[in-house]
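To illustrate the input format used throughout this study, we show a single complete record. The first block contains the structure-token representation of the backbone; no residue identities are included at this stage. The design step must infer an amino acid for every position from geometry alone.
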């Protein structure tokens, strides 16, 4: 029996949470010295439990057992980076759970049939360069390497990631047998159901768009109201339209999270605004409808899609293992949809993958308010350990 050591689990979580903490939240942005510090912590902890840390061409760290070259790896993990003013649990909980699960399996002394690996993905959040799930996209061939590097400048050099290493990183996929990711719940579905854990059934379809609105930059004092072509006023109407159109379709969510305003001066009328639009829905057709309505209502706006994910179903065998392990640990687990992107979701079309969500009573995410109780987190880690033990022993 692989039993997670509660004290070690808690201590590791606290050690990682001490890195990049500020008064307004966690600041472990990808490709920065604070993420690098978290990676050094990861390497040290992994080494202390007998794992050997390797880095793939995209920058992800893989802590592997000594038989790593003999067969593809049973993998678990998550990411170490956070959003700006992010929370302590997103990403970190999955990495610490995987380390604690690996430690429990190694300590149990049960003979293993397959190598085990703990992954610390780099740049899952995409907060700096709009490159979410950077590393899992790279290894699955879903990254436009040249366009991405142009946006990122020399940031990836901090971990020695280069154009050629990124191209070579696709070899990493061959080493992965399957992948499990524990993650703090993002939303508030589990608490009302009285469930500590959720097993993701699928990732919802999602699209990201840019809307470019054109006006005429002019003087804020000398231009009469009737002569104005204010791109920011149009953008304000667009923000409200996204809210209306998404609200009109059940389960659909739409967000304008960022505006770039030119010239962006307090005494100038905006001549050009670029807005990001993020749309997610249980039904891909609903997203298409929202875009069609926006095109109709904003005929002069340039709308272009920058990414889309058709949604993905997680692996049924791994899901069943997570449910069985949760019940063996005495935890209530329920099916749980995910509206967010995750490295597990990027891997899922290529390798068996699954996700386990840990109840987040308030439902907040990407803020320091995100939380999960120590008891629920431990149940998540123990469920992961039991599932992984079944796969490797
Ligand atoms: Zn995350």
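Output of the design step:
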């Amino acid at each position: 029996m692989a039993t997670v050591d509660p004290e070690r689990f808690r201590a590791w979580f606290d050690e990682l949470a001490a890195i990049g903490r500020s008064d307004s939240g966690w600041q472990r942005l990808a490709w920065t010295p604070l993420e690098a510090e978290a990676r050094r912590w990861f390497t040290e902890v992994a080494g202390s439990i007998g794992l050997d840390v390797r880095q793939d061409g995209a920058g992800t760290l893989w802590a592997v057992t000594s038989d790593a070259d003999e067969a593809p790896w049973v993998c678990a993990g998550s990411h170490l980076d956070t959003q700006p003013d992010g929370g302590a649990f997103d990403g970190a909980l999955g990495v610490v759970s995987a380390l604690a699960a690996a430690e429990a399996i190694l300590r149990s002394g049960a003979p293993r049939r397959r190598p085990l690996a703990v992954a610390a993905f780099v740049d899952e959040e995409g907060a700096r360069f709009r490159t979410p799930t950077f590393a899992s996209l790279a290894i699955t061939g879903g990254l436009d390497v040249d366009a991405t590097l142009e946006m990122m400048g020399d940031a990836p050099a901090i971990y020695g990631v280069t154009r050629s290493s990124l191209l070579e990183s696709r070899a990493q996929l061959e080493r992965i047998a399957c992948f499990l990711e524990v993650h703090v719940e993002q939303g508030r579905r589990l608490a009302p159901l009285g469930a500590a854990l959720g097993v993701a059934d699928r990732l919802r379809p999602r699209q990201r768009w840019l809307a470019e609105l054109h006006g005429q930059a002019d003087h804020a004092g000398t231009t009469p109201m009737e002569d104005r072509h204010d791109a920011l006023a149009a953008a304000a109407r667009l923000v409200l339209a996204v809210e209306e159109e998404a609200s009109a379709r059940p389960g659909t969510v739409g967000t304008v999270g960022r505006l770039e305003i030119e010239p962006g001066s307090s005494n100038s009328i905006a001549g050009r605004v670029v807005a990001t639009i993020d749309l997610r829905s249980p039904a891909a057709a609903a997203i298409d409808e929202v875009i069609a309505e926006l095109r109709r209502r904003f005929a002069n706006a340039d709308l272009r899609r920058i990414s889309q994910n058709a949604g993905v179903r997680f692996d049924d065998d791994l899901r069943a293992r997570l449910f069985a392990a949760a019940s063996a640990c005495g935890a209530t687990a329920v099916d749980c949809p995910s509206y967010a992107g995750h490295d597990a979701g990027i891997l899922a079309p290529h390798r068996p993958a699954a996700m386990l969500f840990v109840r987040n009573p308030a439902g907040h995410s990407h803020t320091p308010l995100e939380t999960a109780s120590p008891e629920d987190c431990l149940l998540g880690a123990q469920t992961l350990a039991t599932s992984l033990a079944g796969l490797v022993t």
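Structural context for interpreting the output: The chain is about 35% helix and 25% strand. The radius of gyration is 22 Å.
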